[in-house]
Design a protein that fits this description.
alpha+beta, four-stranded antiparallel beta sheet, 324 residues, 13 helices, two-stranded antiparallel ribbon, 3 domains, globular
Length: 324
């Protein structure tokens, strides 16, 4: 899909495995205007990949993203209802389109922020735009308050940035039922750590800082981090660091989300060998063999023994997904 996108324009900024921003301002003479290029993208994705996709066309990244959401199919009791496929928002239509949306549509408005805004009778983006900025800052703080005020007025001038080096690699998962024990969280931590390590190695990266993210049932969120002496790209080492951080958390109130991220990234293979490496030279070869098996037979082909029978963590999935 990304190869297809880059055949339209070199200015492609991926935001997930199957979603990206495309700056097509330089492709107009060759391919036509934005709506025409959007139709071309849909036709080519269908023809070359056998997939349907939704495209938003707008002057800014914020509204293009929201327009693509509006173009998607919608679930119903009778099954999926087809979406528009392409939604175009012009400069003149931008504020009207944006202000009619629920406030949760904006980046940065999660459940806790939405609850605070609800106490101010702010339910739509238009309600947010009409709120005096001093009231917004007083409720949400300087940073978030001003940020949301700017977004509510479609002030988003960020360019499409292609080929940005990742600052961190991680996985998070929202659980279908809260975890209340370190033991059960430890199993989930190993699953996440193994997935993060696999992604690091596939990207040719390793990292020195392991960060743990915990969100409780009341949406209170805490993070803990540990910087290691050497960069790591092995699931066992990431999980070991994560367990040290997890030991500082009391899960009794109920943990709703667990995340593991590795930052301080460097090119893989630059790690200095230690005495332990010299004594156990086979582990690097074992890790390489694991990657080769997974590349050939899939991520579930080989896993840590304690995860046998469990679905491997994949980027973007949650325990609310259809496979659970």
């Amino acid at each position: 899909m990304f190869e297809l996108f880059r055949s339209i324009t070199p200015l492609v900024e991926g935001i997930s495995l199957d979603e990206a921003f495309l700056d097509v301002s330089g492709a107009g003479r060759l391919l036509g205007d934005g709506p025409t290029i959007a139709a071309v993208i849909r036709e080519r994705v269908a023809a070359e990949e056998g997939l349907s996709c939704s495209v938003g066309v707008a002057p800014r990244k914020l509204t293009a993203k929201l327009a693509s959401e509006a173009a998607k199919p919608r679930p119903s009791l009778a099954g999926p209802e087809p979406g528009a496929g392409v939604v175009v928002v012009t400069e003149d239509e931008e504020l009207g389109f944006l202000h009619a949306l629920p406030v949760r549509a904006l980046w940065g408005v999660g459940p806790a922020t939405a609850a605070r805004l609800d106490r101010l009778a702010v339910r739509t983006v238009g309600d947010l735009a009409a709120l005096p900025i001093d009231a917004l800052v007083g409720t949400l703080g300087q940073g978030l308050g001003r940020h949301l005020h700017e977004l509510a007025w479609a002030r988003d001038n960020r360019p499409v940035v292609s080929d940005v080096a990742p600052k961190s690699i991680g996985h998070e998962e929202t659980f279908s039922a809260d975890h209340h024990s370190l033991e059960s969280l430890g199993v989930e931590l190993m699953r996440l750590g193994d997935a993060v390590a696999s992604r690091l190695r596939r990207a040719g990266l390793a990292g020195r800082t392991v960060q743990l993210k915990i969100r409780f049932h009341d949406f209170r969120t805490v993070t803990r981090s540990l910087t290691l002496r050497e960069p790591v790209d092995e699931g066992g080492l990431i999980t070991r660091a994560g367990r040290q951080l997890l030991a500082t958390i009391d899960p009794a109130p109920g943990v709703r989300l667990l995340g593991v991220h590795v930052s301080g990234l460097v090119a893989g293979g630059v790690r200095q060998l230690t005495l332990g490496d010299a004594e156990s030279p086979g582990w690097t070869g074992a890790t390489r063999a694991i990657d080769e098996i997974r590349d050939r037979f899939g991520d579930a082909a080989i896993v840590p023994a304690s995860l046998a029978g469990r679905r491997p963590k994949r980027r973007g999935d949650t325990q609310w997904g259809p496979e659970h």
